[in-house]
Amino acid sequence: MKRTKIVDIFAPGLIGSDVSVMGWVRTRRGNKHVQFVALNDGSTIRNIQIVFDMQRFSEDQLRPVTTGSSIHVTGKLVESMGKGQTCEIQAETLEIFGTADPEIYPLQKKGHTLEFLREKAHLRPRTNTFGAVLRVRSALAFAIHKFFQERGFFYLHTPLITASDCEGAGAMFQVTTLDLNNPPRLEDGSVDYSSDFFGKPAALTVSGQLEGELGATALGAIYTFGPTFRAENSNTPRHLSEFWMIEPEIAFYDITDNMDLAEDFIKYCVSYALDNCRDDLEFLQQMYDPELISRLEEVVKSEFVRLTYTEGVEILKNSGRKFEFPVDWGTDLQSEHERYLVEEHFKRPVILTDYPKEIKAFYMKQNEDGRTVRAMDVLFPKIGEIIGGSEREADYDKLQQRIEQLNIPMKDMWWYLDTRRFGTVPHSGFGLGFERLVLFVTGMTNIRDVIPFPRTPGNAEF
Ligand code: 4AD
Ligand code: MG
Q: How large is the average pLDDT for residues 267-293?
């Protein structure tokens, strides 16, 4: 008999038929007449109840069926008399794939803390919480491709190994095959990278944007969706050393087009999760965040506020609020400031634009005022910055000047500048941190809990 996934067992029409299911035991309870097993196979948050009539099965047969063991059951699917489930399986055969010694299997029935589960990241996907989060994550990834593909964007694969620092923050992980104990050296004592693998210093990318711009100024509209790496020592609930980023880049787009796209994009993804991940979101709402679904619905309905950085700073300064980090024009906003604007002042998402050029990257289009650039950060409740983007500087001379001012080695940038030398066009783009989106949609509070195997300073286990 062909296996049926548990998610499909609950579809109407199967009652009365013989089914075959496979999965991991969540719980077993009962007495000497009847035993009940809750079985989960990861296809849904819901367990199927399996009823063992102990006239057909021996206690010895059932003994290895403990939490975490893996089994195969065939039997008849019937309507359930019990509360909390619509149907159950009356077991006819039982095959045990693998046992899970109750003395040592870490995921026993009782609720574990998220901190405990982080140490057991190899097994936590088998819990309700991580099953739900990972299914939502997968659905969101699909929604992202769907959104862009439906709008004629091309998926561009930008390199993970690169020699350029897009954000100019110097937070890159070096990639080398040199012998760290005894690297070749130049006469002045510095490392001779000409004999390194790539013939020059290389690192893991912090962003696919620069290559994304090459794609956009040829294909018109592209998006990337891949891992990015940041070697910053940030131990916060919103930073990872390895995270996934989505970066659309579009020719003939100005900052307003870019804001419209960002707003449509996030709303589309959130709606997709509401429409396709209902069971999982309801579970997460019940367990962690009573306002989860209404917050998601709110964001889909709301019109994002659009505000300049200068206006934002005025609001913060006049708020009468004592922030941990004082705010003044020219300072970078901290998450406490972003969240004040979103959660307390406006009570909806905010797109903040026109930041001082000193606190933003070299590639952003300069405004006529000479002080600000056409940047846009999308700020979200509970999260703070979820998207960062801008209109790009399309003028060769202005861009070159900025690169010089910031001491970015020009010899590494010639190919980027060529887009402005040959057929330059206005263009814009942004980056969405995928885990921050998953964080928002699942209502989880620590970014380590929305990626299967988090990489953070001091942690590369699993
Ligand atoms: O604001 P960022 O640094 O912008 C860029 O990298 C641009 N090149 C994007 C572009 O215009 N194409 O990063 C973009 C987003 C942030 O808004 C945030 O959501 C996420 O990436 N992000 C992180 N997420 C998790 N851990 C980190 N350490 C992150 N750093 C940034
Ligand atoms: Mg940013």
A: 98
